Amino acid sequence: MHAITIPEPGGPEALVWAEVPDPVPGEGEVLVDVVASAVNRADLLQRQGFYDPPPGASSYPGLECSGRISALGPGVSGWALGDEVCALLAGGGYAEKVAVPAGQLLPVPEGVDLITAAALPEVTATVWSNVFMIAHLRPGETLLVHGGASGIGTMAIQLAKAVGARVAVTAGGPEKLARCAELGADILIDYREQDFVEELRKATDGAGADVILDIIGAKYLDRNVRALAVNGRLAVIGMQGGVKGELNLAMLLGKRAAVTATSLRGRPLGEKASIVAAVREHVWPLIEGGRVRAVVDRRIAMRDAGEGHRVLESGANIGKVLLVSPAAG
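RE: above sequence
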């Protein structure tokens, strides 16, 4: 098969489409003929040499894919050859074939085409696990989403609205904010021109956000705590703004607030399977009912994955950037 390899860390040009050995599904795994994958921030870090795959995972980038099952490993039940699926991966999505633990498979939702389905696993698993399973966003509460026009952001807006929450977003510029509004965002904050703490305070009569989903990290830590409501929950899922920040514990104590930080890629298989099962139970009906959809910015040939990385690094995308395998035809 062919896959995107990284002979040496570097810029987008470091991604090389090369012939490599086919993977073989092990115990509890299936082999998927990949139709599409998607670009995630973690892929950019891996390309630069900063984020190695977990032990035992594929060395090729790609944290999600869609395709068709072409082989079943020992001990797999509930899936059949030819099933159209999408999957959460620890790596290997930028390839024509990938071995996937069966617990990380999802059926392609009704009404979603097979290529578009590649945009769903990572964002749905990330948002559902952090915003709902950990931060317990409830109807009537306010969620602040940083990077509202990103793949994560566009999914978070829709899921929060579907459960009856109010949504505030930060994004860069009027075009991105307009797209967030189309998805249901109630409070629109241009981080280039406005202070999100002040804007959120005005929009919530001083209360703040009950839950904040943060992709920035250290740069926003102090302001995020200031923006939290009493009993608020800050969920940190990214480090685009650095890894070390100062935390005002007195303010956190005064608000009886909580800060959590998670990553998805390195979790044990059992935890990933539980998250995927929860996504299938709670999110898939919303997608099949038309209340939530994948937001796709563009599709790029997988062999040109470097171009997808350039798009994400430039911040030009609204929603997901998909990489389409030659198998898609």
